[in-house]
TrEMBL record:
It comes from the Bacteria. InterPro entries: Dup_hybrid_motif, PTS_EIIA_1_perm, PTS_EIIA_component. GO terms for cellular component: cytoplasm. Pfam families: PTS_EIIA_1. One of its GO terms (molecular function) is kinase activity. It comes from Pradoshia eiseniae. This is PTS sugar transporter. The keyword ATP-binding does not apply. GO terms for biological process: phosphoenolpyruvate-dependent sugar phosphotransferase system.
Amino acid sequence: MFKGLFKKKQPNDQDSMLVPLKGKIVHLEAVPDPVFAEKMMGDGFAIDPADGTIVSPVDGEVITIFPTKHAISLKSKQGREILIHVGLETVQLNGEGFTPLVMDGQKIKKGQELLKVDFDAIKEKVPSILTPVIFTNLNENEKVVVEGQEIFIR
């Protein structure tokens, strides 16, 4: 009758996250940058983009848009922290090709447009446009699983 009543609840995002960018899903280990490939910042996946619109995978809040506009950090209502890092070595572009559609601290809804990226303008200037999506605060036993256009933490 009281089974599980006093167990600590973990964040449950089973049906609440979307893939933030259209394109081919790639294992993080295939990203040609050891910071991402070796999961130094956390587990996740990467996207080989087919489109330049990045949307929010969750209901939550924008923690920060990096000053060079190449990355955005989010926090879901459940407390998941998500980093979307557009391309590799894109920090050197100093914002060229990136148009933020939200601001730091802004409340966001799942599917809301966050950032427009002109991949045609930047792809010749950077080593890769693979876009890592990193969950920076997972528990040690949690893994990121992508099925279709949905993201699950298991």
